[in-house]
Design goal:
Layout: E1 7-9, E2 12-15, E3 20-23, E4 27-28, E5 32-35, E6 38-41, E7 45-50, E8 53-58, E9 70-78, E10 82-86, E11 93-96, E12 118-126, E13 132-135, E14 142-144, E15 148-151, H1 157-161, H2 166-175, E16 178-181, E17 186-190, H3 193-208, H4 215-226, H5 228-245
Parallel strand pairs: 4-8, 11-13
Antiparallel strand pairs: 1-2, 2-7, 3-6, 5-6, 7-8, 9-10, 9-12, 10-11, 12-13, 12-14, 15-17, 16-17
Length: about 260
């Protein structure tokens, strides 16, 4: 039987279900519950305090969708008026033709989305029986025709994004990739082949070592060492420096003896 205790992993506190986390000076966030004037953990994970809320970031488990979540899903089946989508969830997720930006005739779903296609979508509704409705009707939601999808634990998504988007901005800066992080743990990457490989490896590192302190510096060091974009910038810089060191060519004169300024 687990004893009730704090286990510290490099200043990150691991808590167990039922463990007391705080009092009325905080609000109960995700992965917690309030009993009387105390807040307790409802799952195994890392204690996190932000904006007055106590949360527990789970160490694993399946993604449990909430209305409004932005996700990346894969089409796994289709019917005459709907598609079934895998969103890394234990419950079926359906998208009706009325929840797409297209006019889809009955029985014509396969012309728009086929099995294996990836979509950027949102959770429209989750009812009390855990039936999930997906939508693509909002601006920016679409079929993903290019790029690559990397899968991580949904519980590591906040770590990949970073505080204020700092971690994902770091990866974009060094790779030049377009990146969208789904709250279900699917991440879409698009860019040059070498850049996508670098970004994928950085994301996988975050997934493996999410509880490690100093992870941002470690990811930055990896990207500085491997990023082809940095090498490109260095090459361009070297070329510019070489050109700057070359002596200027003699000016040509026009028939009037003056420099010709027309380009």
């Amino acid at each position: 039987m687990l004893e009730k205790q704090d286990i510290q992993l490099e200043k990150r506190i691991l808590v167990i279900p039922g463990e007391e986390l705080g009092d009325v000076s905080y609000k109960a966030g995700t992965g917690t519950y309030r009993k009387g004037e105390k807040i307790f953990a409802s799952q195994l994970g890392i204690k996190n305090i932000r904006a007055g809320y106590i949360n527990v970031i789970p160490l694993g488990g399946k993604y449990l969708p909430r209305s409004g979540d932005s996700i990346i899903g894969i089409i796994i089946d289709l019917g005459p008026s709907s598609w079934m989508i895998n969103i890394n969830c234990p419950y079926p997720a359906m998208m009706h033709v009325n929840e797409t930006p297209w006019k889809v005739d009955y029985g014509d779903t396969g012309r728009f989305l086929k099995v294996g296609d990836a979509v950027l979508a949102k959770i429209a509704q989750v009812d009390e029986t855990k039936r999930i409705q997906i939508t693509m009707k909002e601006h920016g939601l679409r079929k993903l025709n290019s790029g690559q999808i990397v899968k991580i634990s949904h519980s590591k998504v906040p770590r990949v994004i970073g505080k204020g988007g700092s971690m994902i901005s770091l990866i974009k800066e060094y790779t030049g990739c377009r990146i969208f992080v789904g709250q279900n743990g699917n991440i879409w990457l698009d860019g040059e082949v070498e850049a996508v490989i670098d970004a994928s490896k950085a994301i996988e590192m975050i997934d493996r070592e999410a509880q490690v302190m100093g992870l941002t510096d470690k990811v930055r060091a990896f990207l500085q060492e491997h990023s082809h974009l940095q090498e490109k910038y260095q090459t361009d810089s070297d070329e510019l420096e070489t050109v700057a060191q070359q002596p200027p060519e003699p000016e040509e004169e026009t028939q009037s003896g003056k420099e010709d300024n027309e380009w």
